[in-house]
Amino acid sequence: MDALTDDQHGHPAYLALDERDRSLVRAILMAVLRYRQDLEVILDSLLERPLPQGANSLRATMHVAMAQILFLDVPAHSAVDLAVESAAADPRNKRFSALVNAITRRVSGSSDVFRARIAGEPTHGPDWFQGRLADVYGAKRAAAIATMHRHPAAIDITLKDRDDAATADALLATGDGLRLANGTIRLKPSLPVTDLPSFADGLWWVQDAAAAIPAMLFGDLSGQHIADMCAAPGGKTAQFAAGGARVTALEKSGNRARRLRANMERLGFTHAVDVVVADLFGHDATALYDGVLLDAPCSSTGTVRRHPDVPWTKTPADIAKLADLQARMLDAAARHVKPGGVLVFSNCSLDPDEGEAVAAAFSESHADSFEPVDLSGCHVWLDPFLTNQGRHVRTTPAAWPHDEKSFAGMDGFFAACFLRLG
């Protein structure tokens, strides 16, 4: 999942805050979601009797206080007092304000013990999600992935010109950082993205290292006409344009299309990118391209480091529904590839039902018109992520470990490349 700029959409009360308070709110919410099951286990261990059925706001109030005490640089007494005030101000929770006070004070008094307990336990999460990871990746690899989900993602940056040493050096000079094997600049979060050097000059964009892979599978882009079938916010569109391609960028949402255009304007790519507000299924049936990218809608389970709400808001039924949609979209996208052209299918799901299974079914049903491409050796750094005899790319958050946890990993991503025959 790409991010060209910080998304400023949100609740009016949140948008009314200054940037410092917004940052604190974001940090609290991320900590609560990232450690939700751990907090729930601790809370249940401290309760003499279960909370009333449906007491979700009360539970959330205590989770917020506990997260501040255990994981954030917030004075414990402030977190306790705020939780008690919040409970007392809510008619549903007023009678529990003494309980909130007692529980949060106990957490504060034993914070070191609870932090050590969490660090020493396997990462918790929804049973369906943890079980699925273990089934697919095995217990050891699933545990490594789950451990990385406890750590926020670094800021990954794609340079407009990968040989732009001056911009790379300026970005790395803002703090701890390094350049990854694929050319991505990786930084520890320290400044707002828009305050980093050359943002306003449009010399780079934020894009997870794994999200940069699909566009790289097209090879030499010079003079090619590429269709990006689900383009917003535009990280991959920008890669195509930077590589010298002419790009037709489809986006069915008018709001997302406006954001896409704004991002292309900042990056100076409006001359190379034609943004089309359209649904893939309704796109001009006669339009053929040298290359087509379908980075399909998915469950986003590969992005839990940056979106820790995903396991709690998705279900196996969602995955099945999305896999069906992806298969239909891939069939539709294939109709727009010229003979001799390239089709790339990708998404940011960790689940093979949305990746490997969709690609395998497409290969079988289109054996007379599309040939899977062996990606071995196309990029040396990519080889460790190749599966299915080099025909599939599979990354996980446990990839590319580094001494500093905040530098480790990448999004979970799948990609497959097909050559149109004829």
Structure in words:
Helices cover 41% and strands 15% of the residues. The protein has 422 residues and is of the alpha/beta class. α13 (254-267) links the parallel β7 (246-250) and β8. Mean pLDDT is 93; it is low at 1-7.
Indicate the topology.
Layout lengths: L1 E2 L8 H4 L3 H16 L1 H11 L9 H16 L4 H14 L7 H13 L1 H10 L6 H11 L1 H10 L6 E5 L5 H8 L4 E3 L5 E3 L16 E4 L5 H4 L8 E4 L6 H8 L3 E5 L3 H14 L5 E4 L12 E7 L14 H4 L2 H19 L2 E11 L8 H10 L4 E3 L13 E2 L4 E4 L17 E8 L2
Parallel strand pairs: 6-7, 6-9, 7-8, 9-10
Antiparallel strand pairs: 1-5, 2-4, 2-5, 3-4, 10-14, 11-14, 12-13, 13-14
Helix pairs in contact: 2-4, 3-4, 4-5, 4-6, 5-6, 8-9, 15-16
SSE pattern: EHHHHHHHHHEHEEEHEHEHEEHHEHEEEE
Class from helix and strand fractions: alpha/beta
Report the biggest beta sheet as strand number plus sense, adding barrel if it closes.
9 strands, mixed
Note the gap between the termini: 33 Å
Radius of gyration: 23 Å
Q: How helix-rich are the residues, as a percent range?
A: 40-55%
Instruction: Compute the number of helices.
Output: 16
User: What's the number of extended β-strand segments?
Assistant: 14
User: What form results from the Cα inertia axes?
Assistant: globular
Identify low-pLDDT runs: 1-7
Mean pLDDT: 93
- Strand fraction: 15-25%
